[in-house]
């Protein structure tokens, strides 16, 4: 399966803590990001699995999701 750019959104929620940073990275985050590239997935025996990897200003990241 192919999902077109902008059709999948990734929600990131978490807390960053530790040594105080000059740019103020510490704190709670809950953000929704649109995936601006194609996302590919497989549908096998009723299970949908999608995965994607990318890079932005914060570095490299990836996700895999499995829907039963």
Describe the structure.
By secondary structure, the protein is mainly β. It has one domain. 0% of the residues lie in helices and 63% in strands. It contains no helices and six strands. The chain has a four-stranded antiparallel β-sheet with strand order 1-4-5-6, with no helix packed on it. The protein has a two-stranded antiparallel ribbon with strand order 2-3. A hairpin with a 2-residue loop joins β5 and β6. The chain is elongated, with a radius of gyration of 15 Å. The chain starts with a strand and ends with a strand. The mean pLDDT is 87.
Radius of gyration (Å)? 15 Å
| Count of separate DSSP helical elements | 0
Distance between the termini: 16 Å
Order of helices and strands: EEEEEE
Strand line-up of the largest beta sheet? 1-4-5-6
**Percent in helix:** under 10%
Beta content comes to over 45%
Shape: elongated
Quick one: how many beta strands? Answer: 6
Mean pLDDT: 87
Say what oligomer this is: single chain
| Spans of at least 5 consecutive residues with low confidence | none
Structural class: mainly beta
Major sheet: size, sense and barrel closure? 4 strands, antiparallel
Number of domains: 1
């Amino acid at each position: 399966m192919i999902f077109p750019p902008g059709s999948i959104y990734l929600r990131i929620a978490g807390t960053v803590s530790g040594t105080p940073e000059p740019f103020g990275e510490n704190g709670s985050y809950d953000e929704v990001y649109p995936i601006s590239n194609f996302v590919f997935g497989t549908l096998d025996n009723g299970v949908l699995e999608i995965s994607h990897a990318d890079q932005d200003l914060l570095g490299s990241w990836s996700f895999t999701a499995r829907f039963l």
